[in-house]
Amino acid sequence: MQVRPIAKPIKANLSNLSVILVNPLYPENIGSVARACANFGIENLILVKPEDLTPLPMYAMATKSGEAILKRMQIFEDLPSALKDFQVVIGTTARLGKRRLVYYSAKEITEKICQLSQTNRIALLFGNERLGLSNEDLFYCDYVITIPTTEKASLNVSQAVGILLYEIFQSASIFESSKPVLASQQEINAMFKILEATLSAIDYLPHDNPVLWLTHIRRFLTSRELTSREVKIIMGFCRQLLWALGKPLKISFEEGQELQNDKSEETYQKDKAQPE
After folding, report:
1. What is the pLDDT confidence band of residue 178, given thresholds at 50, 70 and 90?
2. Strands of 122-126's sheet, edge to edge?
């Protein structure tokens, strides 16, 4: 079963956001935009005077996740009609000029979008693949944003939609990932007992200052935030190495320090038996 990372967009009302494509030229791009909308929780897609609505390429690019978006998308003949029910309109452009009044990047506008979306319907406006939004289209926009790229870059409209929706989703969401339980100090100390014995057996400990040398090794390993399983793997490796060299493991633990459930050898044998 494939597990995907899931975030909860609690800082924005995504149902109040709509993507509007003005005069889109290619059905493949409409489908790709629908897929992007589905990936980032946007339910509303609006087209203004589309050139081509051939179903096959459109649905092929939308994939199964974007089908529902395409089925309920709205189509208008002019931009004012499409915008009449929105309180906020945000336009996008790749061209910067004094008349375009671009003051935000996609990342900079997201917090404002999240706040406004709580009580307002917001239109995210994108131009077509050839010309983008005209000055006449931008007249209706309350904010105009751009997506910074390299000098010679050229973003496809579906890529631009995906980038903006991603930024909004990240700003609105809390991602809860499970963190592993780290090994206890008892387990770490037991591991270093065996590790010290192993390094001593293969004459890898400097004789002048072994404590300093082991401290460096300890800091290196503990900075990796070892789990109990990883500690047991290291212990199993040391035991196996000593066994292969014909050197018996001779260590003594202080009272209560030796692991009661040390199954490092068992862990090693299980891992060894598992197919790659």
Report:
1. confident
2. 74-76, 44-48, 17-22, 122-126, 88-92, 143-146, 104-105
